[in-house]
Each structure stands twice: as C-alpha cells, then as structure tokens.
Amino acid sequence: MDYTEIKFDIREDGIATMILNRPERLNSFSRRMFDEWRDVVAHCAFSDDIRVLIVTGEGRSFSSGVDLTVLGSDEMKPPAFRFYYRQAHQAFDDLEALELPVIAAVNGLCYGGGVELALSCDIVLSSNNATYCLVENQLGAIPASGACNRMIHHVGLAKTKELIITADPIHADEARRIGLISQVYKDEEFMDRVYTYAERLLKNSPFAMGMAKHVVNMCVNADMKTGRDIERMAQSCLVQSEDHREGMAAFFEKRDPVFKGE
Prior knowledge:
The protein is α/β, with parallel strands linked by helices. The protein folds into 2 domains: 6-201, Alpha-Beta Complex (2-enoyl-CoA Hydratase, Chain A, domain 1); 206-253, Lyase 2-enoyl-coa Hydratase, Chain  A, domain 2, CATH 1.10.12. Helix content is 46%, strand content 16%. The protein is built from 11 helices and 10 strands. The strands form 2 sheets. A 6-stranded mixed β-sheet has the order 1-2-3-5-7-10, sandwiched between helices. Strands 4-6-8-9 form a 4-stranded mixed β-sheet. α1 links the parallel β2 (15-20) and β3. The longest helix has 20 residues, at 78-97. It starts with 5 loop residues before the first strand and ends in a 9-residue tail after the last helix.
C-alpha cells in the first residue's frame, strides 16, 4: 500500500516509527488514515525484523481524533454507524493486540480519539508541551473509541468520569500524576529521549515482551483463577524457547544475552 496519510520508517536496529501525517488537520483520523494505519500494524505483525513500534504525529499535534468533516457521526443511521465504527475500532484493537512493544510518543495536542490512540499503546511518553482532552462531551457525544473502558485501567473510575464529563484539558505533568502517561520529557529533546527509551527495549527478549503484553491484556478482564491459568500457559511456551535458553546461558556465563525472538 502507498501511504499518503501515514509515514512509516524502519531503522536497521528494528525500531519502526508510524507518523500520523495530516498536520494541516492536526493529524485527525480519516478513512484513508485508518486503512494505512491497519496496514502498518499488519506489516509489523508479520515482520521478523521489527522489535519496537513508535507512534507519533507530524507537526505540533499528536492527533485531534476523528476528522468531523470526513467522518461526521450524523452522516449515518445508527445501525450503519455502529457497523462502520466497529471497523474503525479494529485499528485501535490491532495496535493493542500487536505482540511487540508499542510506544505512543505524544508530541503535542492530544484530543479526543488521539487520547484513545495513546491508550491503545503500551507505553505513553509525552512532551512537556502536550495537552490531553476528551472533548467529545462538548460535541454532545462521548469518547467511544476506547476511552470509556481503557482509561479506567489507567486512572480509575472516578477520574475517568471526571475527564469525560467535564471535557477539561490537562497538561502533561498532570497526566503523568494521575497515571495516564508514563514519562514526560522536555520538548526540545523529546524524540531523542523516545528513541533512547525504545533502544533499551531492544536488549530484551522479543518473544517474552510480546507474550507478556498478550498475557496482561488477557488478564484485564479475567478472574484470578483464569488469569493464573493464562500465565502458566504462556510461561510453558516461553521456557521452551530459544530466547529462554539464551537468557539462562547468559545469566550463568555472566554476559549480555543475544535474543533472536525465537
């Protein structure tokens, strides 16, 4: 697929970057962007060379969410609307399910669906200039691409309700304080710090990181017994892997492991 609304780059070390590329529209989502985004995620899923995916935005915005001039919710009847948005939501779900670390690098304005995109990633790193807002209530709607359910696991029930109902923006430091994001870096060094963070992950086992992500995602809605069963099943696969044998050998030989994701 030729990308016009996404930029996609893969470094030799295995760090890939997906850049939302509609800066004139604050990187708002269109049908074309959703299609390109899903194609990028599929490429990452089937590639043996990609170890980490970074998601960020071109220009001064991470994303302002859905482009209402293109995907206005009043254009379709409710059944058609629900069908279409199930397809659109698959882009978020595919990113969440991708079995490798996904870092949201929030470089600026992060509103509406932009927040929900960040929540679909595993680790959210933020510029100190970034602002976050679930603005949908001011449009007579709700954030319906994951914020109502994913955000609860980040900031809790009460804070999720407050952010949705008030539609008040918060700055990066407050977002970190409440647990919405992981780290805040100065804007002038932001992407350098993001890539340094990603490079740290290259030292870890790709197979184990992907499995850990998958297990944690499955355990979110599982009872305690089911969660422990999931953990045991995953571990039984990992201990048979080449990465596990390499990790154990490196530990006893007092050297750094060289993982292959096998």
